[in-house]
């Protein structure tokens, strides 16, 4: 079972973070489908195919007016439902003049779209991430463009032992790679969980300022919702300590890391990330440090995965792998992609 | 009928503007054929295949001497007829050592070449552009390299309604897109004419300094000679005025815009342009403004068409269009390309 | 017989100059095979496949430690024999975890590798270059990356008449191209010799400062050992002089130029060069001038050959050549490549 070359179409993916979408035109390609997004006067998100019906000029290069999106080439105009409402030089608009629209749900500060068969688009299938709308939490966020297939990012995130080597300067420590993982799969939901719990580990640089500790109890609990949502629940606490029986954890720091893995094309990916915390909510300096550290870590991954993508293409079908214990999470995740891909609609 | 992927070979195309060709070697590819041009001692233009017979090094990288073109790699030497006259290290020159030459006609300040079957090269088939040699006219000119197929440039020029949207800052005004066109095709010559005449229109920025008018009568008369010559006859005058019955037009400004559309490869084009006027002949400041305005407009087209070329390639055979009234000119032009392409020689 | 598209695999090639290989990881691709080289604690050269068995991350991006090469992604560790000795998160290392190693010989200040069937790797087949280890000689050296197939570099070097045209400013003079060559092939060893001896020639710029002469006797004796080693024996002396019968040559300057032609991929080449002299051994200023002149000449070749590679690809199978007397050396060399390619192992 190799790196999945493609992700399934009949699924919800994050197309944008909510704060990326405003009253201007945003071009974004998802699963090879060029989209143009904007926030309507009503505050909802409109998602249209980013190709004028006339000569295929990208609508995202046009202008957003009160009458809708006006194409920047010849002025064909579209309302939020994708209907063409004006054609230059004639009063009649051809009945077939309409661009595709896509099911969209904005939830938990993210904009989800459905590229496949719209009849299969069930909003209830989108996983909730409660802490994103919990006032006891704050977060920082961004998106990194990745010139590598989504499967390589999924592999990367499901096996955090790479932190020890690729991210040594930020979040790596020897114990991450040394500590065995526990992998479980929920056959009903497809959710894959990978737990790695270190009771007495070196505190990596990124956590020292935060915790003031040299050695820590460190938990990394991955919760992967196929195909595109990855949640990492982190606990940092003094060594050999556990939360209380009632769940309270006065000595522990909890942080959440969310990745949304959205294929752009067969060989590029939108790598969305959100880092949340439930302490020091109003601390802009901590925000800045958090953004800097996470951006640096993500860039290390991007550099490595872009290189691997080049290698996969150059090596062609000769690609071979050897999997070991720490790959159980990644292999389980790949199986979920295969399972979801088995039954899907054809591209429209 | 989609954008023509290729233009016909058995036709004359502009390879260069006359002032580009001097006593130095000029490399230029036309219809995928690499050419080297120079002006001979007699003042005529020589056009040879730009590949040495020996190891295919481009002759344009060599030097032009009294003995002819000397290849910059091993010194094979060619006279203006393409005959190899000297080979290093031996006195005998192989009889087959000769590079192709191409029919060439210099006329109306442009250099025309014929890439296809030379037996079909009739100089009388090259359309004349009299104002280019009329002392009552002056002009500015240049060539913009376009990373898009020639058909996209033809589409662009045949439908000037795009001026309203793409060129709003220079030559666009609402009336261009709003005013219907009249399209006629001469079945004998294949010439396509598209007339758009606005009797009371907003004066676009590029014409205000020239005319001193806020509103104008504006005529745009396109005269397309397939496959590669596009003439735009422009009249700017006070609103609701017409030329006199004898053709005189004291209140009107006449300008001419010429485009020569020459395919370089299947996906790139030489976009030659000349802008002429019959007033203020000796006005270098007006020359400069004319060059600046036209260069800016052409660059807007180049940017848009380069983007469309990428989209055509990315979308592959899924490419679909919806044509409306304002496309009658462009569609008529495409039909001429198809007609001329139907019977043609095979590449030599 | 066209430019060889590929060079034979079951042959020794120079992978690096000795001084390029130290106690750090050096990535180098030879015949499409990605390699990682380093000098071991014992001083020998280790050559391993540059792909971790786990997820194919390049080992050259990892770190070299006392335990061996540690992969920079997940920490798989390899000893100098390519054996994987440590896997993170588990004590057992899979038995099949091993990367390929390659036969390697360091000789005469160059590192030779054998990419094909290792059973055919006979170190005695590597040609010796005695002057490289002779204390009476000194040298300067470097490697130029070439974005062209190795056959184009071989063509270039076997026909030095191009010096007159491509390198006029450095080592060209009219007599090089005018003087006929004598080509001989040793059918047993495959060595091709091309001699060009000018008894009274213009002294090119690069030799004037050296010799103080305006006209010279100039010998260029090529000795090509297929597939990858090219030796050029140069004698510069006063016109019409010969060495003495006992071989002594008090009025002559002897220099040696060595090229190692190593295919990187099917369309790129490592162009190693060494320039040696047996006079003024301790003259850093002469070293600097020699490096500057040879680098400039090599760059002229690189520019020309990169252009020819683009032409070969663009022209496709239409590629045609016309060969003349001065090509006898190049054609003989191509035949040796064909002969060596006829019987070879399949890629592993």
Shape of chain A: globular
Quickly count the domains of chain A: 2
Strand content of chain A: 25-35%
Q: Treating each run of at least 4 consecutive H or I residues as one helix, how many helices of chain A?
A: 6
CATH H level of the largest domain in chain A: which superfamily? Naphthalene 1,2-dioxygenase Alpha Subunit, Chain A, domain 1
What is the string of helix and strand elements of chain A? EEEEEEEEEEEHHHEEHEEEEHH
Strand order of the largest sheet of chain A: 11-17-16-15-14-13-12
Q: How many whole angstroms does the radius of gyration of chain A measure?
A: 22 Å
Most residues in contact, chain pair and counts:
A-B, 22 and 26 residues
> Taking all residues together, what is the mean pLDDT of chain A?
94
State the major sheet of chain A: 7 strands, antiparallel
What kind of assembly state do the chains in view correspond to?
homotrimer
Residue windows where pLDDT falls under 50 for at least 5 positions of chain A = none
Structural class of chain A: alpha+beta
